[in-house]
Amino acid sequence: MTSAISAMLVFMLALMFFIGRYLNYLGYEVNYVRNFTDVDDKIIARANELREDPIKLSKRFCEEFHLDMAYLHCLPPSVEPRVSDHMPNIIDMIQQILDNGCAYTINGDVYFSVDKFPEYGKLSGRRLEDNRAGERVSVDTRKKNPADFALWKSAKEGEPFWESPWGPGRPGWHIECSAMSAAYLGYSFDIHGGGMDLVFPHHENEIAQSCAACKKSNITYWIHNGFVNIDSEKMSKSLGNFFTIRQVIDLYHPLALRLFLIGTHYRSPINYTIAQIESASDRLFYIYQALYDSQIVLSQHDEASRKDSIPAGTASCINKFQDEFLVSMSDDLHTPVALAAMSDPLKLINDLLHTRKGKKQGLRIESLAALEKTITSGLEILGLVPTSYEEALHELREKALKRAKLTEDQVRQKITERDTARQNKEYERSDAIRKELAAVGIALMDSPEGTTWRPAIPLALQEEQVASP
């Protein structure tokens, strides 16, 4: 139940991370429903273990989940229903399915009859006999077909229950989602999201029971995201490679984690490694530094005095970026390509800021303003715009110091030692200090104004990346 970088985090990754933002950008009015299952076997078992009320336990974890989503700049849903608040909707849908002859009762339990739905398996392409009996629930030999699944489960000792026409009990896992989506979106809506593991049987069962309740039920697009792997191995508590969002953002900026996640197409597996999150953090610093430096220069020039035109080269760079960005996002939300498209305009910004040729370019300020606005627009769609670039850069530096187990004063002391060594022509000592800091992800930057530092990928990881085929 913890908000971990696992199936739970990526469960609706596409919806939470960028679909809503992109559809809003395109001018669509988005009604985004994200439901919470706050009543199921695992929650009840955990609550009993902690001697806590299951609903209160669920509420606490939902609140923690909200914090994690806020850290990652995920847009809040239009509505966020919970199972415990929608028992009348669930009971009404089960009754509809029974009235339509697609379910049956056994001693207070209600089961959906998959034999009554000939199209069962149309989403996954799997055969009926492949249904995973026992998924989340114990196998019941009383069922007419082993693949039949529970719509209502009779009350058991030590479990919460609600009154129903079939006696006290609680809903099965699958019916909850159908009832709540129908309550807020109707029986037909555009997009339904979830993890690859939910295609079968969960979403297959949703289709069956929704169609059994209403023949006109239809979902236009099903969107399923890949799993998170840790060093190419699936994340799992049993394997001991399970960790939470909070543990990651303790050492890395939350938007570095977001950048890492959208750096892989949502349908592909995401392979989390230290090298990958370091690379994402380094890239984020580069982007924010370029935009911050640009803002500083622009603030020194009166906006009213700027001309309306920009050089042809700048216009071409911007147009190419916008075309690539929109085409890739419209092509099944291909975020890695959209991110890669930022490289050329960011390079042009840095050329205009720091190279002799760039500083002399005509309409330089106009170019910087247009490029900064264009990149920021793309970052907004991807949810990567911080409260301020200056603040984000400071936070990225603080996280880098924490990973390096150094303080700002200690780094400055190393810089002073290196300056002294260089003055004394002790170049081996000077190089050793630079390499010592580079090893823990602190890069020294020399300029006529002196030496500063910035976060960087630790030297060993850089060498590992170069050595990789």
Explain briefly what this protein structure is.
Keywords: Ligase. The chain is 51% helix and 11% strand. It has 469 residues and is an alpha+beta fold.
Task: Explain this structure.
It comes from Nicotiana tabacum. This is Cysteine--tRNA ligase, chloroplastic/mitochondrial isoform X2. Keywords: Ligase. 51% of the residues lie in helices and 11% in strands. By secondary structure, it is α+β, with helices and mostly antiparallel strands. The strands form 4 sheets. The chain has a 4-stranded antiparallel beta sheet with strand order 1-2-3-4. The protein has a 3-stranded mixed beta sheet with strand order 8-7-9. It is elongated.
Keyphrases for this structure?
disordered N terminus, four-stranded antiparallel sheet, Cysteine--tRNA ligase, chloroplastic/mitochondrial isoform X2, alpha+beta, 469 residues, elongated, single chain, ligase, three-stranded mixed sheet
Portion of residues within helices? 40-55%
The main β sheet shows up as: 4 strands, antiparallel
Give the number of helices. 19
**Total number of β-strand segments?**
11
Broad shape = elongated
Beta-strand content bin:
5-15%
Strand and helix order? HHHHHEEEEHEHEEEHHEHHHHHHHHHEEH
Overall pLDDT metric = 91
Helix- and strand-based class? Answer: alpha+beta
Question: Low-confidence spans: pLDDT under 50, at least 5 residues?
Answer: 1-12, 133-137
Radius of gyration from CA coordinates: 27 Å
Strands of the widest sheet, in order across it, are 1-2-3-4
Distance between the termini: 38 Å
Keywords: Ligase
Organism: Nicotiana tabacum
Protein name: Cysteine--tRNA ligase, chloroplastic/mitochondrial isoform X2
